[in-house]
Design goal:
Blueprint: E1 4-9, H1 11-27, E2 31-36, H2 51-57, H3 62-68, H4 71-91, E3 97-102, H5 104-115, E4 123-127, H6 135-138, E5 144-147, H7 157-176, E6 186-191, H8 196-208, E7 212-217, H9 221-231, E8 237-240, H10 245-251, H11 263-267, E9 272-274, E10 281-284, E11 299-303, E12 306-310, H12 313-327, E13 334-339, H13 356-369, E14 376-379, H14 386-419
Parallel strand pairs: 1-2, 1-3, 3-4, 4-5, 6-7, 6-8, 8-9, 9-13, 13-14
Antiparallel strand pairs: 10-12, 11-12
Helix pairs in contact: 1-7, 2-4, 4-5, 8-14, 10-12, 12-13
């Protein structure tokens, strides 16, 4: 079957590039659905969605944008508008994938549209900045960044091959389809290198009960992606056992997931079991990148690119209050588990980050701040011990069973009422 690929870009300045892309998509048996984001001049080809329509989707006309002579406002309007357009087109079933090209500005606009599509929908950006820090463009989506090598500025012997390869990649994605897998209830879990043993044990227990478990590496984008799946109502339960991204957000580490971390499960009443996994550490890149004000702290080179800094009792007290405050927003059933013999692999008796006083400050702050109806379980073991994994998963199973019973009772009541 022919698939429609949204091709997004400024046709006024890069028209020849997009004509080539259109021909390559059609040569492979699919349809190029052209969306114009250029505001400077006319397009050499007729788009399926005009720049005027994109601008109006953001609340302004194209002529008004041109009259402003303000590049920043034009960028903002087209970035916002194209995301609205692409999301609508996908919901209407008019596009199956999306493709864009550009320099730094074009990448901002193009990836805004790509990120508006759900996870799993093929999306590819050919960009001059694809080999640098792509987090601002990709965020927590599954956008594929494809280096353009040359500027996106005309078709030549080198760019033609790059463009053809990129089209081959997006066509390959849409022709792959979705693998046929059994759809099981979904549990998400947060993990870090220092809690790998814990989460792998939980995974074994979860899967034996017939659930599917998705594990997210708590490196900023990992926590954001997990929360986005929860926000989009894909998730039945959460094992948020590695909340280390809170430490980076509080102290200034490099792997923060932002201030909204942990908010989604609370907002949507998703059952959750929470633990302060790896709150004993803040992350920086290589040792030479650690800020001067932290150089006299307890530092540990996890690998040549990652340096861990032990959190202090004062920081742990703040982290305990923060974690409990977030848990207190929960509308669904929630439980907290505290490992009294350490929050990570490094934070265990005899190891580098073992600091009982710091951990106690964390535990006390959690217990002092948490709502009375949210249970807190203290286990005399390390977070990676088998005892902890069994207790945390057993509690989640208990909560999920209760949720299912309530759901079934509600459905039975509705069926009774509908027959009267």
């Amino acid at each position: 079957m022919k698939k429609r690929i949204a091709v997004i870009g400024a046709l006024d300045t890069k028209g020849s590039d997009y004509i080539f892309i259109k021909s390559e998509i059609e040569r492979r048996g699919h349809i190029a659905y052209i969306i114009d984001t250029g505001i400077l001049g006319e397009s050499p080809i007729t788009p399926d969605v005009s720049a005027e329509e994109v601008a109006q989707s953001s609340g302004i006309t194209l002529s008004e944008l041109r009259q402003l002579h303000d590049k920043g406002k034009a960028m903002e309007a087209m970035t916002r508008g194209v995301a609205i357009v692409v999301k609508r087109l996908h919901l209407e079933g008019k596009i199956d994938a999306a493709f864009s090209m550009g320099g730094s500005n074009g990448t901002i606009i193009g990836t805004s549209a790509l990120r508006a599509l759900p996870l799993g929908v093929p999306k590819l950006m050919v960009s001059t900045v694809a080999s640098g820090d792509t987090k601002p463009y990709v965020g927590n989506s599954d956008v594929v960044m494809f280096p353009s090598i040359l500027d996106v500025s005309g078709v030549n012997r080198f760019s033609a091959q790059i463009y053809a390869n990129a089209v081959g990649a997006i066509v390959g994605m849409i022709e792959t389809g979705t693998p046929e897998l059994e759809h099981k209830p979904l549990i998400t879990a947060s993990m870090f290198g220092n809690t790998t043993t814990l989460v792998n044990r939980c995974k074994d227990l979860i899967e034996k009960k017939g659930y599917e478990m998705l594990i997210f590496h708590a490196v900023g984008t990992g926590g954001q992606t997990m929360d986005s799946l929860i926000e989009n109502r894909f998730v039945d339960g959460v094992l948020d056992l590695t909340t280390t991204e809170l430490a980076d957000e509080l102290v200034g580490g490099v792997l923060t997931a932002g201030p909204d971390r942990m908010n989604a499960a609370a907002k949507w009443s998703v059952p959750q079991v929470i633990a302060p996994g790896c709150l004993d550490m803040v992350n920086f890149w290589g040792m030479e990148t650690v800020p001067e004000k932290f150089r006299d702290r307890l530092l540990y080179p996890w690998n040549p690119n990652i340096t861990l800094m032990r959190t202090t009792p004062e920081e742990n007290e703040k982290l305990g209050k923060l974690l409990a405050t977030k848990a207190n927003q929960a509308k669904g059933e929630t439980a907290i588990f505290l490992p009294l013999k350490g929050l990570s692999e490094l934070d265990s008796p005899g190891n580098e980050f073992w600091w009982p006083e710091a951990n106690q400050a964390l535990f006390d702050a959690i217990k002092d701040t948490i709502r009375e109806d949210i249970p807190v379980y203290e286990l005399d073991c390390n977070i990676n011990d088998e005892e902890f994994a069994k207790a945390a998963t057993a509690k989640l199973f208990e909560i999920l069973k209760k949720e299912n019973e309530l759901t079934n009772e509600g459905e039975a009541d509705n069926a009774i009422h509908s027959t009267k």
